[in-house]
Amino acid sequence: MIDILRDIGVIARSLDSIANIEFKDLNLTRGQYLYLVRIKENPGIIPDNLSEMIKVDRTTASRAIQKLEQNGLIEKRADSVNKKIKRLFTTTKGDELAEYIVKENNYSNKVALKGLLDEEVKTFSRILNKIKQNTETEWDFVKKGNKRNY
After folding, report:
1. Using a CB cutoff of 8 Å and minimum separation of 24, what contacts does 135-144 make?
2. Are the C-beta atoms of residues 76 and 86 closer than 8 Å to each other?
3. Phi-psi region of 143 (alpha: psi -120 to 50; beta: other; left: phi over 0)
4. Where are the alpha helices (DSSP H) in the chain?
5. Integer Cα distance of 10 and 19 in angstroms
């Protein structure tokens, strides 16, 4: 059996390692760049939805959000209807960093897909999206306390 997930894991860890090294001087660590970009792409997102989007637990998301806020990259604003709900927004400084991070992501995509034909990229993307959907369904199932049968 071909172990595709192992290869996907190697790719993900390699890109994460590169980003952590390249973003170190931006004062971003361990994936905080991912949170920053998602908040930029989804202004006003609530922390629970962000953690769901990134597929991490609330505690992990909360720590990252707190660091981004301490570094002046995002801010929390009370919801206009329910003041208990805090919505997340990037600051001007956060917007600038998010744009830089997106450039790095575009570059990494270009490097990773080098040598593939457009049709191959489209096919790969379609297949990868199906794998992602399958995995997200399992993640949701387990996250709700269910056990998988192997």
Report:
1. 136/55, 139/55
2. yes
3. alpha
4. 4-22, 32-41, 47-54, 58-70, 92-112, 118-143
5. 14
Q: CA 86, CA 109: separation in Å to the nearest integer?
A: 33
Q: Residue 99: which residues within 8 A CB-CB, separation 6 or more?
A: none
Residue 68, amino acid: L
Name the DSSP letter for residue 75: E
d(CA 75, CA 66): 9
Question: Digits of tens for pLDDT over the chain (150 positions)?
Answer: 788 999 999 999 999 899 888 888 888 876 899 999 999 999 999 999 999 999 998 999 999 999 999 999 999 999 999 989 999 999 999 999 999 999 999 999 999 999 999 999 999 999 999 999 999 999 999 989 999 999
